[in-house]
Amino acid sequence: MATRVLIPTGALGLGYDREALERGIANRPDIIAVDGGSTDSGPSYLGRGVSKYARSSTKTEWRELMRARAQAGVPLVIGTAGTCGADSAVDWLLDITREIAAEEGMRLKVATLRSGQPAGRIKQAMAAGRIRPLGAAPEISDAILDSCSNIVALAGVEQISAALATGADVVIAGRTTDTAIIAALPIGRGDHPGAAWHGAKVGECGALATTQPNSGVIQIDFDATGFTIEPMAAAAAATPYTVSAHMLYENSDPYILYEPGGHLDVTGSDYRALDGRRVRVEGSKWVPGRYTVKLEGARVVGYQSVGLAVIRDRHYVAHAREWAADIEARVAAKIEARMGLAPGDFAVELRLIGIDATLGTLENRRDLPVEVGVLGILTCPTPEQAAEAAKILNPYLLHHPLTEDEPMPTFAFPFSPAEMQRGALYEFCLNHVMELDDPMEAFRLEVQDVGHEVGHD
Question: Does some domain include residue 126?
Answer without folding.
Answer: no
